[in-house]
Amino acid sequence: MGVITIDTIALVDEYPGEDERVLAHEVTRAGGGPAAVAAVAMSRLGITTAIVGTIGDDADGKEVLRIFDKEGIDTSGISIGTSATSGSVIVASKKHSSRAISTRQPMIQAALNDAAKKIIASAKWLHVDQVGITRLEEAGVTRGKGPLISFDAGYGAEKFDASVVDLFVPTDRQMALRYPGIDLAVALENDSRKSGVIAVATQGSAGSAGYSAETGLVTAPGFKVEVTSTLGAGDVFHGALVAQLIHGKDLNQALRRANAVAALSCRGLDGQSMIPTTTQLDAFLEAQQ
């Protein structure tokens, strides 16, 4: 549950300067949004998945529905709002391995429809981003009442009450703001023990680390692939992590497999096109032995 967008992405060697035009190696339009990308990752990894959020009654909204239908994702919980479907224009630089993003103002979220409420009530997990986390009360969900809650802590994680969710996943940089001067391993353990959650931190190409009462501290290294763009890799990781937990993997296995899924997604310019299936993921990991 959360943000759904249609993005235009250009791959260039270097960012253009003021009034400068540069040649793009590739330009594509693709689905985006933290919750939406995570949903695609879950579906490709064999999880029965539905998406809840808001789109506009416009061409981009129709493209959103087409993408999710192709991915086998239930869209009955999507509401049609009164403003244009959210989107971004993104320039990815090969030289700097970074991107610059211009985002249309997020649309006002339309009320959850009846289908959305039924889907959420019957779900095993509810994954939310920075918008979805604000709609838990509207969805009738609190921790321990309804599905397990996974939170992609993209913004404001330094002051977030982790006890609200079951799986708390900020970046290592956000954890450093949350616990200034404290080692990441200690910070994760503190959140896990204090709030009774699975606490995980993403570390970019270095991999990820997590702490749960069952496993204690676990770490998993990243994987080297031919990178086109890292756009959406964090969102892919979140979806893949939840998928692996649903598949019954322990935290160590789940982190390793989610790292691999996120790495493989970086072979594409957008966040979705190169997300692997479980068969492709297994073949990749077998080749790493």
Please render the helix and strand layout as text:
Layout lengths: L4 E8 L13 E7 L1 H11 L8 E3 L3 H13 L6 E3 L5 E8 L4 E6 L10 H9 L2 E4 L7 H4 L8 E5 L14 E3 L2 H7 L5 H12 L2 E5 L5 E5 L3 E5 L12 H14 L4 H15 L12 H10 L2
Parallel strand pairs: 1-5, 3-4, 7-8, 8-9, 9-10
Antiparallel strand pairs: 1-2, 5-6, 10-11, 11-12
Helix pairs in contact: 1-7, 7-8
Write up this protein.
This protein is α/β, with parallel strands linked by helices and 289 residues long. The chain has one domain: 3-Layer(aba) Sandwich (UDP-N-acetylmuramoyl-L-alanine:D-glutamate ligase). It contains nine helices and twelve strands. Strands 7-8-9-10-11-12 form a six-stranded mixed sheet, with helices on both faces. Strands 2-1-5-6 form a four-stranded mixed sheet. It has a two-stranded parallel sheet with strand order 3-4. Strand 3, helix 2 and strand 4 form a beta-alpha-beta unit.
